[in-house]
Amino acid sequence: MSIRATTALLLLALAPLAMASKSNIAAKETFNIDSVHSTAIFRVQHLGAGNFYGRFNELEGTIDWDAEGGPSFDVSINIESVDSGNEALDKHLKNADFFDAKQFPTMTFQSTSAKKMGDDWKVMGEMNMHGVTKAVEVDMEFVGRADFGRGDRIGFETSFTVKRSDFGMNWGVEKGSLGDTTKIIVSLEGIKAE
Q1: What residue numbers bound the domain in which 93 lies?
Q2: Residue 174 pLDDT > 50
């Protein structure tokens, strides 16, 4: 067999691998987080009686979507955007007793892996808050994907708990005036990047 014929056969044999590789690359899509339609809410017990809710109004980042490999998330929250509905309380939440926005201006989550669980995903990653990074595992609900003429969109939602004290936020924990266990609810909507 000539070198030319051998080369042609080799190229034909490798073509499916090249095509598979291209299709795998194309399977990954990036979505930019739509901060207007995304939400980060927290809940903590107040004075042993009620639950207090607050939110952050500024989220940014990306969702990378691979239908087979699952989602990956890179989310950043602006601490200055904390909103309790009360200006004086917002000021307290931004100071060194709590989030210390001057020293730690962002809270972040970066996923490291995802495992399919029915229609949803178990997502592992690292959360950084108040200068401390901890591994977290969250159940991420796949909310949906649609395009109504305002961009191809995808949505996910999760709720999980952390202890404030694990992140060095101890104000009120020892006396029990403010709960240590904090529920975090995050709903993300992403717009497909062009």
Answers
A1: 28-192
A2: yes
Q: How is residue 157 written in tokens?
A: 């939602």
Share of the chain above pLDDT 90, in %: 80
* Pairing state between β 106-117 and 70-78: antiparallel
Q: Does residue 9 lie within any of the structural domains?
A: no
**What would the pLDDT profile of 56-76 be if each residue is shown by its tens digit?**
999 999 999 998 889 999 999
Instruction: Please report where in the chains the tokens 């892996």 appear, as a residue.
Output: 113
| Total of domains in the chain | 1
Cα dihedral sign, 164-53-84-36: positive
Whole-angstrom distance, CA of residue 122 vs CA of residue 94: 31
Quote the CA–CA distance of 153 and 31 in Å, as a whole number. Answer: 8
Q: Is residue 151 part of a domain?
A: yes
Task: With 0.85 as the threshold, say if the pTM is over it.
Answer: no
Q: Diameter of the chain by CA atoms?
A: 85
